[in-house]
Amino acid sequence: MASVRHQDVVDELRAAGCVFAEDEARILLEAPDTDVAALLARRVGGEPLEHVVGWVAFAGARLSVAPGVFVPRRRTELLARVAAEATHDGAVVVELCCGIGAVAHVVATRRRPARVVAVDLDPAATACARVNLPQAEVLTGDLVAPLPADLRRAVDVLVANAPYVPTAAVETMPREARDHEPRIALDGGDDGLDIARRIVSEAGAWLAFGGVLAIETSSGQAPSLTTAMTAVGLHADVVTDDDLGGVVTVGRAPREQNRELPSLTVGTARPRPGADTEASTT
Ligand SMILES: C[S@@+](CC[C@H](N)C(=O)[O-])C[C@H]1O[C@@H](n2cnc3c(N)ncnc32)[C@H](O)[C@@H]1O
């Protein structure tokens, strides 16, 4: 709207506590064919900028995100990089807890996988993922439940940024996350690893020989997750990127033919004393 001046938008955003008021004003004023005053009112009211404008910048791409859906964080670009590096030509890639499909998007655009499948429990998230992943199969359901049977023992890269905020820490998260992102996208149970442990316990049934499982986590949780991966026969490692603030636990399945991956008994481990409880969503 031509009558809304850049400086007025900056001032209003600043008064509302937006740290990057200049950048946000530019983005709001660039929004095509929209009522900037209405968008500004939503932003000043506390809605995440990405929900207001309908897109999020992720690893150099502009991806669609709808109100009420988890907004991918910059730290997750590390998970995307790990997944892309593990993807060879013709690979089968599955992203669980895909949200809007940001990680799968990076893999699909930077590599040449034969097949990309993305799954999320939240239909609003999978609706966005279908927009962002036009070549992928996007399925709605609980973790591996909707995966087609022909993917058993055929997945080369299984990747997930599952919810990993410990239940007690959800209340300490920024209001933008608590008020505008679904609880199932944030709450990872007592120690934050409930969903991650379920994924680890299922992985053996789906990974191909030499397949890679990559899960985003926090530095405090990484040792527990590495232990869980080792317990199911994966060779586990931790990859970090301090600039992004990302931590990824990576497990590789054995390459030999008659390996048998034991399944993990899913439980709720207590957080280690001193383990951090950093949120996946700040
Ligand atoms: C932290 S968000 C991450 C979304 C996406 N991976 C990203 O990084 O932007 C976690 C996602 O897991 C999904 N989720 C939670 N529990 C799930 C389950 N049991 N099965 C499938 N998806 C689940 C949520 O709906 C949410 O989209």
UniProtKB/TrEMBL annotation:
<protein>
    <submittedName>
        <fullName>Release factor glutamine methyltransferase</fullName>
    </submittedName>
</protein>
<dbReference type="GO" id="GO:0032259">
    <property type="term" value="P:methylation"/>
</dbReference>
<keyword id="KW-0489">Methyltransferase</keyword>
<dbReference type="InterPro" id="IPR029063">
    <property type="entry name" value="SAM-dependent_MTases_sf"/>
</dbReference>
<feature type="domain" description="Methyltransferase small">
    <location>
        <begin position="76"/>
        <end position="169"/>
    </location>
</feature>
<dbReference type="Pfam" id="PF05175">
    <property type="entry name" value="MTS"/>
</dbReference>
<dbReference type="GO" id="GO:0008168">
    <property type="term" value="F:methyltransferase activity"/>
</dbReference>
<dbReference type="InterPro" id="IPR007848">
    <property type="entry name" value="Small_mtfrase_dom"/>
</dbReference>
<keyword id="KW-0808">Transferase</keyword>
<dbReference type="InterPro" id="IPR050320">
    <property type="entry name" value="N5-glutamine_MTase"/>
</dbReference>
<dbReference type="InterPro" id="IPR022446">
    <property type="entry name" value="MeTrfrase_put"/>
</dbReference>
<feature type="region of interest" description="Disordered">
    <location>
        <begin position="251"/>
        <end position="282"/>
    </location>
</feature>
